[in-house]
Specification:
Elements (H helix, E strand, L loop, with lengths): L7 E11 L2 E7 L11 E4 L2 E9 L2 E6 L1 H6 L10 E6 L18 E10 L4 E6 L13 E4 L2 E4 L2 E2 L3 E6 L1 H6 L10 E6 L1 H9 L4
Antiparallel strand pairs: 1-2, 1-6, 2-5, 3-4, 3-6, 4-5, 7-8, 7-13, 8-12, 9-10, 9-13, 11-12
Length: 195
């Protein structure tokens, strides 16, 4: 389980297609603290560390993950948000994040508010019941509060610290992002949906 509080960013240094999978090789300031078989969220996607070589480490994304996330679009030199699993004795600063991405959304507008930024994202309307104004959402692994939730879009406000210390400073209009909706909201929607 994760909290959506980003520890640092990792840089993609290489990637290799292996059958239907992609092996990603990242360089990170915390590589020396990682262990093989450890779960690490990359832009909100839970991936297992399978190899460590000095300051680089390798994770593998299977076809299912590649189809549902934006990882397939990563380019060499691009940064990703990373977070290790929350320790059992840790402080719960964000919200419950599983690292299981539900869908991608598209960044369709970025507003510079002279001290903060408003980001607007288009979503598939089938997910409209999973977002509520002032509720939680996870974007590329970052735990955020929804400012406005509409049928096919929502917005969040980003403070300078989050803008500088996550991949939000890389976003451009038209970029795809990974979205994980709040797990409690997903259970409530499921309980209230007639099959």
């Amino acid at each position: 389980m994760f909290t959506g509080i980003i520890e640092t960013m990792a840089t993609l240094v290489d990637k290799k297609v292996v059958n239907t999978n992609i092996d990603f090789y990242f360089n990170s300031p915390i590589t020396h603290e990682l262990k093989v078989d450890q779960s690490v969220a990359h832009n909100g996607v839970c991936l297992t560390v399978v190899e460590i070589n000095e300051s680089n480490y390798k994770v593998t994304a299977v076809n299912e993950t590649l189809e549902k996330t934006n990882l397939k679009h990563l380019n060499i030199g691009q940064k990703v948000n990373i977070e290790r699993c929350m320790p059992a004795h840790g402080r719960f600063d964000g919200h419950i994040v599983q690292g299981h991405v539900d869908d991608v959304a598209v960044c369709n507008k970025i507003e510079d508010m002279n001290g903060s930024w408003n980001f607007y994202f288009t979503i598939n309307p089938k997910h409209q019941n999973l977002l509520v104004t002032k509720g939680s959402v996870c974007i590329n692994g970052v735990s955020l509060t929804v400012v406005n939730a509409q049928e096919d879009w929502f917005s969040v406000t980003i403070i300078p610290y989050t803008f500088e210390h996550t991949v939000f400073h890389q976003f451009k209009e038209g970029d795809e992002v990974n979205i994980e909706f709040d797990i409690i909201g997903k259970y409530i929607v499921k309980m209230n949906t007639k099959n």
